[in-house]
Every structure is written in C-alpha cells, then in structure tokens.
Design goal:
This protein is mostly helical. 68% of the residues lie in helices and 0% in strands. It is globular and about 60 Å long. The two termini are 32 Å apart. The structure holds zinc ion (ZN).
Amino acid sequence: MITEPFLLIISAIFGTMIGSFLNVVILRLPDHNQSIVYPASHCPQCSSPLHWYENIPIISYLMLRGKCSHCKMPISLQYPIVELTMALLAAALMYKFQLSIAAAGYFLFSAALLVVIVIDIHHQIIPDVISLPGIILGVLFSLVSDTVTWQSSLIGLLAGGGVLYAVAYFYFLLRKADGMGGGDIKLLAMIGAWLGWQSLPFVIFASSFSGSIVGLIAMFYQKKGGRTRIPFGPFLSLSALIYTFYSEKILYLFNLYLSGQWP
Ligand SMILES: [Zn+2]
C-alpha cells in the first residue's frame, strides 16, 4: 500500500511545525532559567520579537535570506536544518508505517533523538528531562504498538542501560576517569525501551564503529591525543534512527550472519 501523496505532504508540513518548536526546546532546555513557552520567539541577537510571518518554518529563513530583519545578524542554519529534518522524518515515517500508532510513536521518539543530537553536540550533555520520560514513554508505546512487545521493551531498557553501565564501570576501573557520561547510559536505555532488545547489537555496533572513526578524525585535528572528547549521544541516536527505518533488513542480515550464511 502506497501512502497518498496528500498525507505525506500534510505530514511534512506538520513535521516543520514540530521542528520549529524543537528549535526553541534546543535553545532553551540546556538553560535552566529559561521557560520553553515564554517569552515568545525572538531574535537571539537583538531580542526583537518575530512577526508571525518571520516565524514560518523554512520559508521565513529563505525570505529573510538567513538574516534578522531588525539587526541583520545571521540566523543560524541550524533552525531550517532542524525543521527540514523533522519534515523528512515525518513524511518517511508516514510512508513506512502509514497512519498508525507506530508512526505517531516513532515521530515522538525521533523528535527526542534529534533534540538529543543537537544539544549533545553543543553542550556535551543529554538532558534527563528527555531521556527519563523517554524511557517510560517507550515502555508505554510497546503496550499499544504492534512493532515491539512489552517484554522486548523491558529487556531492551534493562540491557541497554546495563551494557553501557558495565562498559563505563570497567573503563573507570582501568583509566580512573569517566569515559562515558551517565547521559549515554540513560539514552541507550531509552532506545532499548522504544526499539526492543533486538535493536541493541546493531545500535551498539554502529554507534561505536562510526563514533570511533569520527573520534580518530577529531583526535587528528584537535591534537589532544587520548584526551579528545566527542559526544557519543549523536552516534547512538543516529544508529537508533537507522534501525527504526531498516530493522527488518538489519535483523535479516544479522540472522544470516549468525547462521554462517553471510557474508
Ligand atoms: Zn536581530
């Protein structure tokens, strides 16, 4: 069954609106003194409030040519990128899962992952206010969705949290320093709760592999040797997003591999 183009377009527009909201969350969440809903949207440089027509996702950025109409300071490209990403994710989820509880749930899940990615890159933290409610929502999602059983969700939550906790603990014993943040542990617990324990081998392998490559490149450019720090949350989140869309193919290849038929 092919989703009607109309439904995909509506999803994409809805995605840009949620992306616009996520931009505010990303900007204000790490700052504990700021409310998410107040004050209204304003230029972060000159604080002048935005007219409604300057607050339309993606379109306003293009119309303003990336500059504040008041002070002419450049507007971060991050805003339209987040809006566009949510538009594509919304349409892709609608295409894959149709109009379903799974599509709605994974939309919420991917919005949380996108916020984690951007905040972790900027601040090297993964906010508990996202990962902890995210864990509970993941278990609740498994009760109403037919994509993952509640047993798989609970084992995923415990195994996801436990595996990284063990890695962090042994790293601490070996190096006497924290190699991995507690935020990563809670994030993998959240991913396990949403995608089930079956997702964990892929998510852990893909994130460690891509993280190591980027880490080596960063080590080369930052010239800080073994003390190079890169946030791990974005790699966990991206791997989880890939699994959300390609779980069937990934599990199929995993089974072939385990039975010695692939590669
Ligand atoms: Zn301005």
